[in-house]
Amino acid sequence: MATEDEMKASVVALILDSKTEDAIDVLSRWYRVTKPKLGVGVLEGKTKGVAAVYSQRRKEILAANREFMYDPFVMIHEFYHHLRSVSGRHRGTEKQADRFAMDFIAVYQRLALKGKISPP
């Protein structure tokens, strides 16, 4: 069983390696929630000027374009919204989603600097 830090670093590494589906699968299993769908597109009135959105109704993370599918900050940020919505708790703020994503990235960077993981 992986430690929480190992899980966080592997999620970032998977996304950087263009394996976002696998990363979302790891997150969903770790947090024991249903896996959100992933897509590229827009939601009317919701995506102007944003990299991605989470549709609670569709349980889907939609990236504004394919490039954002491989951005760890964007994908983990949106997964946070999914996590909060399916847990029955308040959806959380953008700041909380930012902190959640930045924590994963900080762990990845720390472990990479120690040579414990290899950047893709």
Task: Please provide a brief summary of the model.
The chain is 50% helix and 10% strand. It has helices at 4-16, 20-31, 72-86, 94-113; strands at 37-40, 52-55, 60-63.
What key phrases describe this protein's structure?
120 residues, Zincin-like, 4 helices
CATH architecture: 2-Layer Sandwich
List the uncertain runs: none
**Percentage of β-strand residues:** 5-15%
Number of domains: 1
Distance between the termini: 22 Å
Describe the protein's topology:
Elements: H1 4-16, H2 20-31, E1 37-40, E2 52-55, E3 60-63, H3 72-86, H4 94-113
Parallel strand pairs: 1-3
Antiparallel strand pairs: 2-3
Helix pairs in contact: 1-2, 1-3, 1-4, 2-3, 3-4
Give a description of the structure.
The chain is mainly alpha-helical. The protein has one domain: Zincin-like (2-Layer Sandwich). The protein is 50% helix and 10% strand. The chain has four helices and three strands, in the order H-H-E-E-E-H-H. It has helices at residues 4-16, 20-31, 72-86, 94-113; strands at residues 37-40, 52-55, 60-63. Strands 1-3-2 form a three-stranded mixed β-sheet, with helices on one face. Strand 2 and strand 3 (60-63) form a beta hairpin. Helix 1 packs antiparallel against helix 2 (20-31), helix 1 crosses helix 4 and helix 2 packs parallel to helix 3. The longest helix has 20 residues, at 94-113. The two termini are 22 Å apart. The mean pLDDT is 88.
